[in-house]
Amino acid sequence: MSTSLPEKLAAPELDLLSPMLNQDGTCWTADFRGLKLKTALQPIYSISHKRIVGYEALIRAFDTDNSAVLPLHLFQLPASDAENLLLDRLCRYLHIQNYSGIEDQLNWLFLNVSPRVVTSGSQADSFFGQLLKRTGLPPHRIVMEIVEQPTDDAQRLKETVAYYKKLGCLTAIDDFGAGHSNFERIWNLSPDIVKLDRTLLTRATEDHKARQILNGIVSLLHQSGCLVLLEGVETRDQALIAIDAGVDFVQGFYFQRPSIELEQVAQASTNLDELLREYKNRRRVTLDPTQQLTNFFGDLFKHTIDRLCQDSNMHQACFELLNHPAVSRCYLVDNKGIQLEDTVISDSRARALDPRFRPLESTTSADWFRQQYLRQALAQPEQLQVTAPYLCVSGAYMCVTLSQGFYYQGKLRVLCCDILANTEN
């Protein structure tokens, strides 16, 4: 991908970088191209633990007038791959030197590593191993962040990630969900942590469907064996969305901005107890309609089942249910999960059927055994079951399904009823 680096940069190069560092009171700074570099830390919180579990190290550059220089401009200064590698290692050296002096001896330090650096030079970043030995910082307290983007040398990237893992560090994929993100990278690299890009959160803030997609991505990443961190949390509503999505960790201006006052950052706290209380209240009142639906439709279900047991046909038995404006359809299933008769559809739903999904409308003899609501109803007869909102395959609309098992002539059957999850459908 890149030209060979000078021999001196293939060495651990601690002796080359050490003169570029200066102790400034309790902190360390570094000199690069006439700029003074400082470490800024931003806390990362575990929602379940309700406390800081790590810090992301960020570089801050200042000119001779002590005016801030944008990181983007700093990283545009290197004129070669060798100088780019030197700057990357200088930043890591500075961050670790600073973090080693902080009283916090438990939590993680998240370090960004440039993909161009990861795929340059030798696959084993021997410099980093030497650096940890010199500073005494245990490798298990380091999380190496790799920005999610295409690379011309995926194999070398995989080998480098494996090196950091062998060293004892954790690894993270950064900015997942932006640009070139894909699950293939997750499967190939098997990171310990995946950091979701804030664009996912921004979309989830504005669009309910995007929020459901966010929740699904978090679930898939958990199933892939990754912990999930959502960055860019800037408001209370976004914090509550993060909690509801099931992410493990959060980071963002809402909790704490990055700061070069390192000891103060390490002592920062946030009231996650209050956020969790609000989330529980919202969930109970608005996001978890299970009890309300059970209370409202319980008697209607009982009357419908009574009519079915008295040999009423589906249209007659489900008349009251189908008259409710939120009810979409009702259908009957046997103990094997096979639908027994044609689905009965409410008049309002029949008028709103989307012709594009006509191939999916007929569900006679359909097999619903894979659906959890069906299996639960079979396992717990006489109890009304309620699902979370999901996409109905028979019409591609969001719905909630109520189901209840009952016995008819000694055989177990299940009455199912789909309720529109939102009024837009």
Automatic annotation (TrEMBL):
<dbReference type="InterPro" id="IPR050706">
    <property type="entry name" value="Cyclic-di-GMP_PDE-like"/>
</dbReference>
<dbReference type="GO" id="GO:0071111">
    <property type="term" value="F:cyclic-guanylate-specific phosphodiesterase activity"/>
</dbReference>
<protein>
    <submittedName>
        <fullName>EAL domain protein</fullName>
    </submittedName>
</protein>
<dbReference type="Pfam" id="PF00563">
    <property type="entry name" value="EAL"/>
</dbReference>
<dbReference type="InterPro" id="IPR029151">
    <property type="entry name" value="Sensor-like_sf"/>
</dbReference>
<feature type="domain" description="EAL">
    <location>
        <begin position="20"/>
        <end position="272"/>
    </location>
</feature>
<dbReference type="InterPro" id="IPR035919">
    <property type="entry name" value="EAL_sf"/>
</dbReference>
<dbReference type="InterPro" id="IPR001633">
    <property type="entry name" value="EAL_dom"/>
</dbReference>
